[in-house]
Amino acid sequence: MTKLSPETITALGDALFDALEARQPIAPLTDTHPDMAIEDAYGIQMRMIERRLAKAGERVIGKKIGVTSQAVMDMLDVRQPDFGHLLASMNLPEGEPLPMDDLISPRAEGEIAFILKTDLQGPGVTAEQVIAATEYVLPCFEIVDSRIKDWKIKIQDTVADNASCGMLVVGAAIADPRELDLGLVGMTLVKNGEIVGTGAGAAALGHPANAVAWLANTMGALGIPLKAGEIILSGALSGLVSLAKGDVLSMTIGGIGSVNLVCSGERA
User: Fold this and answer.
1) At 209, which CATH number?
2) Helix ranges (DSSP H) in the chain
């Protein structure tokens, strides 16, 4: 049940959009609106997305589930998954430097990305249906970023902030999810030559397809489908890794392949 007025929801969505544009974080929304409901937070997210989609050339290219692994739950002290929208401007081609000057406080996480060949819309979507609807999977870096100062977020804050999504980089390697067990695949994340994260597909709600099913069912209840051709991010397989200019990262998922990331200044 919503707690905030439509006018307040609009104003808070505008405040997050302004913070994104200015690269200046704002105080947690829950500081001034402690009674904010999850429904309010998703309303704020949709207002922020509406503002972003008003920019020339912007469009939705996929969706993401966030806060799926225990490591990320513990790091952010958030105890349930959330979702956000992926936009064209967030999609960074592999090999192009990450524009650190466009971000506020970026962190990287290694994930499995699903590319759908048919639509998925809940309720009732199962993990098996997710696999059947998937064209292929790829290794992916999600670059999370918070418009909330110092990452002091509650679940309502990160939901409102489009699930803290910043950018994404998908690798060129592809695999058929019907030919391997995505719950058992291992992930290794290397930063500046040192291993900084390891995990397995099971870190994402027991299996990445479970995470995508949760996403399809949760968004489906709101009338939002996962569409054929979209990129669907299934959640982090280990903890978040802080980023700084000059960092070089690589992430490998067994049976799928690798993706690389170099942190720079402005986008080339």
Assistant:
1) 3.90.850.10
2) 6-22, 29-32, 38-53, 70-76, 127-133, 155-160, 208-220
